[in-house]
Amino acid sequence: MTTFGHEHLNVTDVRAHQRFFADTIGGVPRGVGPTGEWVIGFPNALVLLAERRAAGGTKGTTVNHFAFGVPDIRRMVARVRAAGFPMVTRAEVSASLEVVDDLCYMADQLTFVAFAMAPDETKVEFIELPSQLQPVTLHHLHFAGPSAAEMKAWYVNALAAKPGRRGNFEAADLPGLNLTYSSSPVPVVGTRGRALDRIGFEVEGLDALCRRLDSLGIALERPAAPAEGLASAFFADPWGTYIELTEGMRL
After folding, report:
1. For residue 118, what are the β-bridge partners?
2. CA separation (Å) from 27 to 40, 132, 170?
3. Rounded to whole angstroms, how far apart are CA atoms 32 and 238?
4. Are 244 and 8 in contact (CB under 8 A)?
5. Could you read off the pLDDT of 189-235 as tens digits, one per residue?
6. Are 102 and 6 within 8 A, CB to CB?
7. Exposure string (b/e) for 198-220, b if CB count within 10 Å is 16 or more?
8. Domain ranges within the chain, ordered by starting residue
9. Taking a C-beta distance cutoff of 8 angstroms, is the pair 6, 230 a contact?
10. Closest to 198 (Cα-Cα) out of 236, 152, 144
11. Of the four, 51, 103, 143, 190, which is 20 to 30 A from 57 by CA?
12. Under DSSP, is residue 227 helix (H, G, I), strand (E, B) or coil?
């Protein structure tokens, strides 16, 4: 069972990312974590920052962006602008959709979205969820690949995600986290070495899940000397998304 997500970023300037993810959008700095990365906490996720130069941003990779739910998107957009980070909504939604004041209404989802560019070309979406009680939570990961349907089917099979749709998007759900899939009109590359190096899931019953993945022919890496109190496993999906599974990581 998945209990929360963690996103691992390669960053050239830790403080710049702390300004975006903590000072601006509301994450909580947690210092250095068990694997040596700087940690920023959200109610249902962790963003971890490793100081190393990335080969490129999130666009053009198999995870185009990740998204946070917010109860008041206008307030969040104003905060991002005031902090000096670029809003890029017009460039990141279809030309057929209207964008006003950096907000785009998504009729298929009955809500507004907005896109910002965090440091190191890390693309971040905000989606308005007026009934959400927390100021900001991780909402979804948005994958891109040759076939949205094939990517969705793989995650349903490998991680037992529940298949569905999010508006017009192919999607699947893990507890507390949506996985959204789009077919990319251009080739994409894997995540490893890019701004979003890997995605992570904290799970209960890691050994059992690893045995299941092994039975599916998925090659796993298990650290010979894991961090104290933290069990982990690493693998890649067929399109190059690097994935970490952990048991023992705490929000």
Report:
1. 122
2. 6, 16, 28
3. 31
4. yes
5. 999 999 999 999 999 999 999 999 999 999 999 987 777 789 999 99
6. no
7. bbbbbbeebeebbeebeeeebee
8. 2-247
9. no
10. 236
11. 103
12. coil
Select from 143, 142, 154, 145 the least CA-distant residue to 217: 154
Strands, DSSP E only, in the chain?
2-11, 28-32, 38-42, 45-51, 63-70, 99-100, 103-106, 111-118, 122-128, 137-145, 162-166, 169-174, 177-183, 196-203, 231-236, 242-247
What is the fold, at CATH topology level, of the domain defined by 2-247?
Answer: 2,3-Dihydroxybiphenyl 1,2-Dioxygenase; domain 1 (3.10.180)
User: How many beta carbons lie within 10 A of that of residue 74, not counting itself?
Assistant: 14
Is the torsion defined by CA of 110, 163, 250, 12 positive or negative? negative
* Single-letter amino acid, residue 142: H
pTM of the model: 0.96
Amino acid (1-letter code) at residue 250 = R
Closest to 57 measured CA to CA, from 119, 145, 127, 8: 119
CA distance 44 to 47: 10
Helix, strand, coil percentages (3-state) for the chain, rounded to 5, are 20, 45, 35
Residues 32-71: tens digit of each pLDDT: 987 889 999 999 999 999 999 999 999 999 999 999 999 9
Within 10 angstroms of residue 168's Cβ, the number of other Cβ atoms is: 11
Is 202 within 8 Å of 246 (Cβ atoms)? Answer: yes
